[in-house]
């Protein structure tokens, strides 16, 4: 499954503003915001770039994340349900 | 995943810009994002430690603003404010003078913080609707928080920064240095031309150190006083009356001084003001105004007496 950023989401990645491993997402037009850190931020960023998240996570052999494939799938489902990602059919 | 999160100010205002654009799109209001996070990278000071080959955005220092500033088409103000309210924003102040004195209203979002909603920009003397149309006609799209937001042209952005600088240190302001001193002669000419179209030449001159060239203009006193760190409030009010572009605006500035403004007292106290506090603040303001009128009458009378004496001695010699 591939994903993209919905038009109803504004976001700023911490490293772009020298703020470290944190990502802020805001749902438009209500302005409700979500903060992602660590592996959560990495998963959203990979998905937003259109990468195959499962494959990318699998490649992280040097520093394997403390997260299972099921966890990743569930997390991606939550992001989609909350309007923070859109599935690309 | 946690929410709602406390968002660092530098990010919050940018996310607020993107949200304000979405609200404007939703209600069909025309807005332009100005200052702070909406300033183009080419108009921001360069980072001294930028790596070689850095992009324009990486090269520019981040501008931090306390709130997200936007300019709204005056005819769309009502619908835009109604939409903000619908989406959970709260109005903190209101326009008592229809924009003749205050140029903006403060709104607040529980997660995204403040927004400064301008109906006009101080220094621009043509009517607000014509000024907006002039800026709108040259608008461009610029991504803020990865969402397309509408901003004025680069020349207009430069002018807005300079007009803001005119009220904050004038030619000594860092914005004046970046937006004017660092600009090419060609860019300066274009900004001057835009200022002429918007009748903002006097305020521009205040920011660029040429205010004395406009000593005969009604706005001169206002911009001279705004550059002072300790200008008397009454003198500012008199200068504002003098600078108002129309008789109607002058009347609104006069009436403004007499209005009770409970929201401004609350904003200063950072809580809802009690009736007694509002009455007290209004009473103090009227007393300061009365003292100012007394001082003004005294100065005019002294000048008149001196002139009469001068005239009398001139006749006797």
Concise description?
Chain A is of the alpha+beta class and 89 residues long. Chain A contains three helices and five strands.
Tally of contiguous helical segments of chain B:
13
List unreliable stretches of 5+ residues of chain A: none
Strand content of chain B: 5-15%
Q: What is the count of DSSP helices of chain A, taking H or I runs of 4+ residues? A: 3
Mean pLDDT of chain A: 89
Assembly state (oligomeric)? heterodimer
Strand order of the largest sheet of chain A: 2-3-4
As for the number of domains of chain A, it is: 1
User: Sheet with the most strands of chain B?
Assistant: 5 strands, mixed
Largest interface: A-B, 21 and 29 residues
Primary descriptors:
heterodimer, A: 89 residues, alpha+beta, 3 helices, globular, B: 52% helix
Explain what you see.
The complex is a heterodimer of chains A (89) and B (317). Chain A has one domain. In chain A, 35% of the residues lie in helices and 26% in strands. Chain A has helices at 38-48, 53-59, 69-81, and strands spanning 2-4, 9-13, 22-27, 32-37, 86-88. In chain A, helix 1 (38-48) packs across helix 3. The longest helix of chain A is centred in the C-terminal third of the chain and has 13 residues, at 69-81. Chain A starts with a strand and ends with a strand. The mean pLDDT of chain A is 89. Chain B is an alpha+beta fold. Chain B has 13 helices and seven strands. Chain B has helices spanning 9-27, 56-59, 77-86, 128-136, 154-166, 174-181, 185-197, 201-208, 220-226, 233-243, 247-258, 262-269, 275-316, and strands at residues 31-34, 67-72, 90-91, 104-109, 113-118, 140-144, 147-151. In chain B, helix 1 (9-27) crosses helix 3 (77-86), helix 5 (154-166) packs antiparallel against helix 6 and helix 9 (220-226) runs antiparallel to helix 10. Chain B is globular, with a radius of gyration of 22 Å. At the A-B interface, strand 2 and strand 4 of A face helix 1 of B.
């Amino acid at each position: 499954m591939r994903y993209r950023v919905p038009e109803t989401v504004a976001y700023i990645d911490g490293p772009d503003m020298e703020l470290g491993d944190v990502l802020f997402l805001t749902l438009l037009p209500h302005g409700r915001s979500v903060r992602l850190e660590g592996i959560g931020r990495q998963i959203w960023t990979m998905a937003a770039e259109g990468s195959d998240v499962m494959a990318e996570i699998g490649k992280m052999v040097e520093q394997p994340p403390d997260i299972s494939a099921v966890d990743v799938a569930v997390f991606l489902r939550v992001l989609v349900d909350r309007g923070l990602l859109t599935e690309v059919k | 995943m946690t929410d709602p999160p406390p968002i660092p100010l530098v990010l919050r205002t940018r996310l607020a810009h993107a949200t304000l654009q979405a609200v404007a799109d939703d209600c069909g209001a025309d807005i332009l994002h100005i200052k702070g996070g909406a300033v183009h990278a080419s108009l921001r000071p360069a980072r001294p430690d930028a790596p070689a080959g850095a992009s324009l955005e990486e090269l520019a220092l981040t501008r931090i603003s306390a709130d997200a500033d936007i300019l709204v088409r005056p005819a769309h103000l009502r619908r835009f404010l109604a939409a903000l309210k619908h989406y959970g924003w709260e109005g903190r102040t209101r326009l008592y003078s229809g924009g003749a004195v205050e140029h903006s209203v403060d709104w607040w979002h529980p997660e995204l913080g403040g927004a400064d909603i301008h109906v006009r920009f101080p220094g621009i003397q043509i009517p607000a609707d014509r000024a907006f149309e002039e800026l709108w006609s040259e608008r461009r799209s610029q991504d803020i928080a990865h969402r397309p937001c509408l901003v004025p042209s680069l020349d207009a952005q430069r002018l807005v920064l300079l007009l803001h600088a005119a009220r904050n240190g004038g030619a000594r302001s860092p914005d004046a240095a970046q937006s004017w001193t660092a600009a090419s002669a060609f860019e300066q000419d274009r900004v001057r031309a835009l200022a002429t179209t918007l009748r903002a030449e006097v305020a521009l001159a205040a920011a660029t150190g040429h205010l004395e060239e406009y000593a005969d203009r009604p706005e001169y006193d206002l911009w001279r006083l705004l550059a002072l760190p300790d200008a008397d409030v009454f003198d500012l009010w008199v200068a504002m009356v003098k600078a108002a572009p129309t008789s109607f605006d002058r009347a609104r500035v006069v009436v403004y001084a007499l209005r009770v403004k409970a929201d401004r007292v609350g904003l200063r106290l950072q809580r809802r003001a009690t009736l007694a506090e509002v009455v007290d603040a209004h009473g103090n303001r009227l007393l300061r105004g009365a003292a100012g009128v007394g001082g003004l009458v005294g100065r005019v009378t002294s000048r008149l007496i001196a002139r009469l004496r001068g005239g009398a001695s001139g006749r006797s010699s």
